[in-house]
């Protein structure tokens, strides 16, 4: 089924894409770990701050950060929030743990090595789940979406900040040309919102372009499972 999905996606995009798997992601971020903050920290900072600010405005203390990386966002959360971070890369997590210790972030309750497509948490364990620059990294973003929906309680919130592919113009051509390099990069340059969720079947509360130049986008929605339960109760 995964091969059929990849073939269909390639047909829709009109170009080839290199498939990611857990091992290729681990290897890519083993290489990136030592320079990640320097190379990506600045350009991704706007989107990260927007996402954390959105989390800080929501109700519910239990927050899951999926793809916590080196922990760049951790100092920005409200101190009354109970934050758990997961990541597939042990090397990135080691840096995140150093950050938590250095900055004395007592509200960070755990940093766990875990596959975002197969989380070990029970259903409804969190009030909020946020994935920053993670959706285009995992092998199957729809599985990520399903798992985040599962571990967030009814009435909770899902947030994603990510680069989504352009629909045309020079940037689209660049993203298309980079697509076969996905395994080496550790992310999909041609990642589209439809790779994460079905826009026709999933109600998105807000989509907000983030600086610089709208390269990143913040997407917010209520847990789809929660929405179904609320409608059934009315």
From TrEMBL:
Gene3D superfamilies: Vaccinia Virus protein VP39 (3.40.50.150). Keywords: Methyltransferase, Transferase. GO terms for biological process: methylation. Residues 64-160 form the Methyltransferase type domain. GO terms for molecular function: S-adenosylmethionine-dependent methyltransferase activity. This is Class I SAM-dependent methyltransferase. It comes from Neoroseomonas oryzicola.
């Amino acid at each position: 089924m995964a091969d059929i999905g990849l073939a269909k996606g390639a047909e829709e995009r009109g170009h080839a894409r290199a498939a990611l798997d857990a091992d290729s992601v681990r290897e890519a971020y083993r290489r990136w770990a030592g320079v990640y903050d320097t190379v990506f920290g600045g350009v991704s900072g706007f989107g990260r701050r927007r996402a954390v600010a959105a989390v800080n405005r929501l109700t519910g203390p239990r927050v899951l950060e999926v793809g916590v990386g080196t922990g760049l966002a951790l100092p920005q959360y409200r101190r009354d929030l109970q934050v758990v971070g997961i990541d597939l890369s042990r090397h990135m997590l080691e840096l995140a743990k150093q950050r938590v210790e250095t900055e004395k972030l007592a509200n960070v309750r755990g940093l766990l090595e875990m596959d975002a497509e197969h989380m070990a948490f029970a259903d409804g364990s969190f009030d909020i789940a946020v994935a920053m620059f993670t959706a285009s990294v995992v092998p199957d973003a729809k599985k990520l979406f399903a798992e985040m929906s599962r571990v967030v309680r009814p009435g909770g919130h899902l947030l994603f900040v990510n680069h989504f592919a352009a629909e045309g113009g020079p940037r689209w051509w660049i993203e298309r040309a980079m697509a076969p390099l996905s395994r080496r990069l550790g992310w999909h340059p041609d990642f589209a919102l439809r790779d994460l969720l079905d826009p026709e079947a999933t109600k998105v509360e807000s989509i907000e372009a983030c600086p610089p130049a709208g390269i990143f986008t913040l997407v917010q929605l209520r847990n789809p499972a929660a929405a179904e339960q609320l409608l059934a109760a009315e």
